[in-house]
Amino acid sequence: MNATWWTGRSGLIIPAVLAAFCTYLLVGIFTMEVPAGTSMPGPKFFPALIVIAGYGVSVLLTVKYIRTPEIAEPATYNEYEDVSEQARAEAEAAARVKYRFFSDWVGVAWAAGGFLAFAVLLVPAGWIVSGALLFWCVARSIGSRRPLLDVAVALMMSSLVYLAFGVLLGLNLPSGVLGGL
Amino acid sequence: MDALGLLLEGFGHAFTPMNLLFVVIGCLLGTAVGVLPGLGSSMAVALLLPMTFALDPAAAFIMFAGVYFGGLFGDSTMAILLNTPGQASAIASTFEGHKMARAGRAPQALATAAIGAFIGGMISCIVVVFLAPALAIMSAEFGPAEYFALALFAFVATSSVVSDSVLKGLASLLIGLGLATIGIDSVSGAERFSFGVPQLFDGVSLITVTVAILALGEVFHVASRIRRDPTSRIMRSKGRPFLSRAEVREALPAWLRGTGIGLPFGVIPVGGADVPTFIAYSAERSLDRRRRHPKFGTGAIRGLAAPEAAGNATTGTAMGALLALGLPVSATAAIMLAAFRQYGLQPGPMLFERSPELVWGLLASFFIAMIVLLIINLPFAQLWAKLLLIPRPYLYGGIALMCGLGVFATSGSAFELVLLLGVGLLGFAMRRFDVPLAPLLIGMVLGPLAETSLRDALLSSGGDYSVFFAGPIPIVIYALLLGAIAISFLGRRRGARAEKAAAAEESKQSVDA
How far is CA B88 from CA A14, A147, B27, B84, in A? Predict the structure, then answer.
């Protein structure tokens, strides 16, 4: 795998997120309407301290990542003593395989996409359908290789949750498309 | 020994078969609600509050005691096994507790938590019985300057002293502090950082952030590693629900230190048991750094024992403060106060005189509830740990589903679910780049306290900053803070030097060979 400038420096996303969040707060501070007659220190005081400190820390973190990249190391059983030789060898062999990205983005995309679909579909489609979809997507992202069996398990799980919490405990879960049946 | 006599009389009231039954039912129901991610003991009490109105006051409060402690136990069970704490006071237990479970010591971790909660709760109940008036005097000493010093201490201790990289710890803390400022400002009523989105007027819910960072972030993290990394696939569980003598010896000082940290917090209105759990965790971690073989990060039994004991110690004294002073110091205590009023009772000094049989019966039922829970939980630790034998895809599918359920049940809005996803992805990124999660949650919990006390202190002093050093308590706290920074700095330098020496030794040996 070719090492690029970004190898070990992808952690720059952390200072970037922090700086973006501070900018959000800064815009909020400038557009905030403070009711008349509010005495010092007002509602802008504490957030302003956070913004100043946040920009400072993100600059320092950026410098740190540029000067000393942090290369991610796959986990092995180094810190554990009570592991069989076979498991240890297996983990070390797996750790030597090189990938383009350290994280398995396909897996993350299945899980995050499943959750987004759940959030969007929950009210229109109802708990049972969207909950089962979430369960199925996450099971797939964790590496399940039996999609049909998963559909059955997912529907059973979301129905059980609906019965236990929606019907018995009276939590307000949307019934959605199955509500009319 | 007046108090002792009254307590014994209270046991007499509580030990009727019906009341014992209510304690057991309460414990079971509380545990059942507590094991759901996102739902903790305050949720358990709130859900079951209407049920108890059918009972007479004594039986209702006895059942409440069971529900409350049961919720705490159930919450820490799930925090340890699945990394899904239901409320802030269980967060500190996840850090080392979940690592223990992952390393195959789930039953031992659950036993450590149950015994720790038992010790903390027992000692605090005894303290309440004898020292309720003294606690009241102490709480009167705390003003805005003292609270600010306390919050600052927690911030610095967790973000720089405790985490491995000071910068990453601070980044995490600042995001947490910033998230806590979103919503309507409680002092001036100004709308802050919501940009007109009505769902943000009440602020970002701590439950959403906790579930997102700890549970959903973990699901994404496992999804990103499980196909490539066999170590993330196995969760071994060895069947030994009881602690070995060595483990007890290891955990005992931490249980006692945690209890000592937790006790005074019950009467200070800083929002309940979450602050002392974090402080106990930080204290254990700084102590651990100075040992020959630091154990934190790989499932240290002390990192779990101390916060559990601290949390329950605070809970016990908080109940004492509620009864003796009428002062609700946590969400749950506030709900209980509402329940007292429902029965036409006003907690406070007068309650002890007007209805002593109720007060002492309630205190006695605290003791009974804890013994019942210990009996229920120790054997069940083994059974709960079996949850980890569910195939990985279904276990994490179920966790994701429960995250969605918990957040939707408390907020009722799809917007909150999208927020959950966004913060969950942040939690994933933080795990990937080794940014500590604890400072973010601490900033979120203590941020509002720090801000209001900072502003109150400055308002009352007319903008004079010397108010922060005016009393003896803040000066002691700042001195402790400086001491902790100095010790951690020296420890870090010594650690770096030892590492260098070890590396030199190793290279010498390889040359010799």
Answer: 24, 37, 20, 11
Find all residues with CB under 8 Å of B424, minimum gap 6, and list them.
Answer: A112, A115, B212, B213, B215, B216, B217, B219, B220
Q: What is the nearest CA distance from A181 to chain B, expressed in angstroms? A: 23
pLDDT greater at residue B156 or residue A117: A117
Indicate if the pLDDT at residue B337 is higher than 50.
Answer: yes
Decide if B409 and A28 are in contact by the 8 Å CB cutoff: no
Q: Which of B228, B394, B417 sits opposite A94 (nearest CB)?
A: B228
Q: Where are the domains of chain A?
A: 10-74+88-96, 105-180
- Distance in angstroms (rounded) separating the CA atoms of residues A151 and A146: 9
Please report, for chain B, the start and end positions of each structural domain, with discontinuous segments joined by +: 2-501
* A46 to B451: CB separation less than 8 angstroms, yes or no: yes
- Shortest CA gap B352–chain A (Å): 36
- Residues B55, B56, B60, B62: is their CA dihedral positive or negative? negative
Q: Encode pLDDT of B449-478 as tens digits.
A: 788 888 888 888 877 888 888 778 788 878
Residue (of B34, B122, B114) closest to B308 by Cα position: B114
Predicted ipTM?
0.90
Which own/partner pairs from B328-332 qualify as long-range (CB within 8 Å, at least 24 positions apart)? Answer: B328/B269, B329/B266, B329/B267, B329/B268, B329/B269, B329/B270, B329/B271, B329/B272, B330/B42, B330/B271, B330/B272, B330/B273, B331/B42, B331/B272, B332/B41, B332/B42, B332/B45, B332/B68, B332/B272
Mean pLDDT estimate for chain B: 76
Residue B167: list chain A partners with CB under 8 A: 57, 60-61, 64
**How much of chain A, in percent, has pLDDT values that exceed 90?**
37
pLDDT tens-digit map of B120-137:
888 888 887 777 656 556
Q: Nearest-CA distance from B340 to chain A in Å? A: 24
**What's the pLDDT at B271?**
52
List the single residue in B with minimal CA-CA distance to A103: B224
Give me the phi and psi of B184, to 5 degrees please: -70, 130
Tell me the Cα Rg of chain A: 24
**Mutant choice from B184, B417, B437 vs A, greatest count of A C-beta within 10 A:** B417
Residue B225: which H helix or E strand, with range? helix B217-225
Interface touch A91/B230, C-beta < 8 Å:
yes
B73, with CB counted inside 10 A (0-12, 13-18, 19+), is buried
Q: How many CB atoms lie within 10 A of CB B499?
A: 10
Contacts of B61 (CB under 8 A, 6+ apart): B336, B339, B358, B361, B362, B365
* Range picked from A7-16, B105-114, B418-427 for highest mean pLDDT: B418-427
Chain A residues touching residue B219 (CB < 8 angstroms): 111, 138, 142
